[in-house]
Amino acid sequence: MMLRTIGLTFKRPLHSSGRLLSDFETVHIQNTNRYKKLLMEQGNFTEEQSNAIVNLMSDAIKGGIAHVSQDLAKRERLTQLTYQQRVDFAKLRDQLLIADRSEFHNIQNEYERVRNDLDKLRNKLREEITKANAGFKLDLSLEKGRIREESSHHDVQIKEIDTRIDQEVNNMKMQIDSVKTQVMQWLIGVCTGTFALVLAYVRLLS
């Protein structure tokens, strides 16, 4: 009630633009003597009481203004921090996008390089397999030819051995037949001689 009657005014009014007061010593109250007179005339206060009330009110107002100023400073600081964080986030997002694009291009290039290497390796492996198959077929053909030659040679040797065996068998048969003939001739000669001796002995006895 008393404050409405007094009607305090300030040397530096607060604007809606958020002008900050870092030190409440910069705040001054005008016409303090007028307020003292009003207190003494309308409130029936003594001069000492009026001085004490005006000083208390001045200190209270200065403290409130300082608190509001600090709060406004904190809000402005938070606004600055928020804006700075947004700027930093935008920069970080741009950097991440650039890094992501760069990483994507690097991965794509690496994929292309690996695919080209795989194609080269596949072609080289196909060529090696073709060469190996050709060499294997050639070796197999040569081995078949060698086996045929050896088989033919073995067949010739077997035929020669069969021929020699047949010849030996025929020779042995001829030798056996010759021996048989000789034995028969010898037996006939022995029998004839024996018969002649017997006849001669019989004649001598008769």
TrEMBL record:
Residues forming coiled coils: 104-131
The keyword Manganese appears for this protein: no
A biological-process GO annotation: mitochondrial respiratory chain complex IV assembly
Ribosomal protein is among the record's keywords: no
Protein localization: Membrane; Mitochondrion
UniProt membrane topology term: Single-pass membrane protein
Protein name, as recorded: DUF1640-domain-containing protein
Family under the similarity heading: Belongs to the CCDC90 family.
Chief localization: membrane
Pfam families from the UniProt entry: CCDC90-like (PF07798)
Residue spans crossing the bilayer: 183-202
Source organism (scientific name): Torulaspora globosa
Annotated keywords: Coiled coil, Membrane, Mitochondrion, Transit peptide, Transmembrane, Transmembrane helix
GO CC annotations, alphabetized: membrane; mitochondrion
InterPro entries the UniProt entry points to: CCDC90-like
Matches recorded under PANTHER family: PROTEIN FMP32, MITOCHONDRIAL
Record Gene3D superfamilies: 1.20.5.340
